[in-house]
Every structure is written in C-alpha cells, then in structure tokens.
Design brief:
Elements (H helix, E strand, L loop, with lengths): L1 E5 L4 H12 L6 E9 L10 H26 L4 E9 L2 H12 L3 E5 L4 H18 L4 E4 L7 E4 L4 H12 L1 H4 L3 E7 L18 H28 L4 E7 L2 H9 L4 E5 L5 H17 L3 E5 L6
Parallel strand pairs: 1-2, 1-4, 2-3, 4-5, 6-7, 6-9, 7-8, 9-10
Antiparallel strand pairs: 5-10
Helix pairs in contact: 3-4, 4-9, 8-9
Length: 293
C-alpha cells in the first residue's frame, strides 16, 4: 500500500501523524511524508543575501522536521520516505499522489466551524476535490469505530469497497448510515393553485424514499456481515449531511464516497461531503468515485 502523508508542521498535522503511526498498515506499506515549501517572497524587505540565508534556514528546519516524522512513523513492515517539494501545498500533494500512484492521502484538519473551515479549505478541500485516490482528513489520533455513509450510489459502493479492502478499516466495528428526506418544494403551491403533487402521491413518494433507504442499509449490512465485519445500521429521516454527522457520535472515522469526478459533480457533492467534512468532530475519509484502487 502507498500512503502519502502531507505534513505542514502544524498541530493538526502532528495529530494526523499520531493517527498514521497508530494504524496497523498492510505488510510492505510505504508511507511518504511530504512537505510543501511555498518559499519566501522577495518583497519582504530583505536584501538578496538575507533572503537566500532565511530561505535556506527554513528549508533546513523543514528537513529536520521530516527526519523527526520519519523516526516517529518507523515500524516493522513499513517503509518511510520523506520529500520536500517547492510549490503550492494542495497542488504539490495532488501531483505527488498522481506521480506515485498513491492509494491514500492523509492530511490534517485545522478544526471545525466557519473560520476553521476557511483554513481547511485552502488545502484539504482542494485535495479532496481533485485527488485521484481516497483522502483521509484527520481529526482523531486513532481509529476504533467507523461510520459508513451509504446511499446506494456508485461512489458510496466504492467507499464500502475501500473499507473492505484495507484490513485496518474492515477489522473495526462499522455503523452503516442511510438517510432519506423529501425536499419541501414537493408540497409547495403551484403557480396555478394547489400543490405540485397531491397528498396521496406525496405519501407514496415518502414511502418509496424511506423504503429505498431502508433497503440500501439492509443490503450494505448483509454485504459487510458476509465479509466478517461487525456491523450495525441505522436509517435516519434527515438531510444526508445532518444524518451522517449526528450518527457519527463518538466514532473515530466517517467513510463516504462522492457522486462523481467531473467539476459539476464535485460541486454538487459539496452539499453533502463538504458539510460533513467541515462539521464532523471525527476524521473523514472521502473516496472519489473515479478511484479504482
């Protein structure tokens, strides 16, 4: 397995490092610790000599931090590599993941809430949007309990497949969450009077949506049980992001898929995955629908 761990020297990256170190990775896993050096700007009022000297000192400091990370992550059965690359952090991470055919990217999270999400958005959001492989955004230092968001789509099924493929996930208790809700607009007044659909049709639609969510949860539960996974399930009447975050409770990780990999599909995804990513108290692993590894 190839793991790309993006370290930026922050407290959240240190927490992510603890998580990476705690995982029992498959035999012969390679973990590459990546540090992106954005470099200094010439317009900081420094002379050319000061600029070069300061930049060299910063690079040396980052190399020392990478060496510390390598020592902290070293363990039998895994290979630890480090690399320092100049460039925008998100671009560097994505390019390196593509170049090395990474199976998983791990990045830290700066927290929750509007301000924290803005900080997260500059790197983790961009990585999640454009990554060629699953991305684990870390908020916890361990993984003991998982929540799998399942809506029956191709992306959710790929997230389930990733969970089953990697022993460090499939060996943990999994709680499957399937959500359903009806948009209020279905019962809004039509321009000509009355509602868009009758009460009878609305009730029928309600039953169909609820039954589909129940079926999706049941089928996922049976598939996971057949693979020896300890699994429970819940069907919740709520918008998907709300249901997933609330169901997570004291879980350590939410695993979820995306609905596609085009620009438009990822924009539409934002209403669910990005809300979960910003609001969750636990780590979140987003599996892109295009991922086949």
């Amino acid at each position: 397995m190839k793991v790309l761990f993006a370290h930026d020297g922050s407290e959240s990256a240190a927490r992510a490092q603890t998580l990476v170190a705690s995982i029992t990775w498959p035999e012969s896993t390679t973990i590459k610790v990546l540090r992106a050096d954005q470099g200094l700007r010439y317009d900081l009022g420094m002379s050319e000599h000061q600029f070069v000297e300061t930049n060299d000192r910063l690079q040396e400091l980052m190399k020392q931090e990478l060496a510390v990370s390598k020592a902290a992550l070293s363990a039998p059965g895994r290979t630890i590599e480090t690399t320092l690359v100049t460039g925008r952090p998100a671009s560097v991470i994505i390019d390196e993941a593509r170049r090395t055919s990474a199976d998983l990217i791990v990045v830290g999270s700066h927290g929750r809430g509007a301000v924290a999400s803005a900080l997260l958005g500059s790197v983790a959001n961009e990585v999640v949007d454009h990554s060629p492989c699953p991305v684990l955004v870390s908020r916890t230092e361990k993984i003991d309990r998982l929540v799998l968001a399942q809506d029956g789509t191709a992306g959710a099924l790929q997230a389930e497949a990733a969970l089953l493929k990697w022993p460090f996930l499939r060996d943990k208790p999994v709680h499957v969450v399937s959500a359903w809700s009806i948009a209020p607009g279905y019962t809004a007044m039509a321009p000509t009077g009355g509602t868009f659909i009758s009460g009878e049709l609305y009730t029928q639609l309600l039953d169909e949506v609820r039954d589909q969510a129940t079926r999706v949860a049941g089928e996922a539960t049976e598939r996971l049980k057949a693979q020896g996974v300890q699994v429970t399930a819940a069907v919740r009447e709520a918008p998907a992001a709300d249901a997933i975050v609330e169901a997570a409770g004291d879980a350590d990780l939410i695993v979820m898929g995306t609905r596609g990999h085009s620009t438009l599909e990822r924009f539409l995804l934002g209403s669910v995955a990005r809300r979960v990513l910003h609001r969750s108290r636990c780590s979140v692993m987003v599996v892109p629908q295009c991922s086949q590894r």
